Amino acid sequence: MRSPTELAQVFRDKQLKLKPQRQLLFSRLHQNKSHPTAESLYEIASKQMPGISLRTIYQTLGELAEMGELQLVDVGIGATRFDPNTGDHHHFVCESCRAMHDVDILTSPKMSLRRGGGFAVNEVGVVFCGRCNRCNHKQQVRSPESQAKDKASN
Ligand SMILES: [Zn+2]
Ligand SMILES: [Zn+2]
Question: pTM score, two decimals?
């Protein structure tokens, strides 16, 4: 995704209205690595600009996606995520807290279909599902062993 200043210029050139709400979203999305959903952006934006509508958020996200500034990531866990990193990369999703991280994979990413069946592949994206460090740690802390100890001490 281009910088908020560059995007403001693009919107002006396209004669799209450059409302302050849009500029706020540009700055919230620029170099944002959290892969936010429309709702989470709405929450963040509302704090800074009370009264901003969810409709404006969806509209701006749609425009940015159409312009190729955002990548939509839909992995079947929770809502669609918006990623300003439009380059080829892969994701890890935590099934517990739904955090999404960019990941590098060790093997060659140049996978191909064993039975191509004439499909024309435009891009390859791998999604790893599991538990993030934070959630993994939380679970270890609350292991059955420590729970048994808790009961014993009560
Ligand atoms: Zn997690
Ligand atoms: Zn990403």
Answer: 0.75
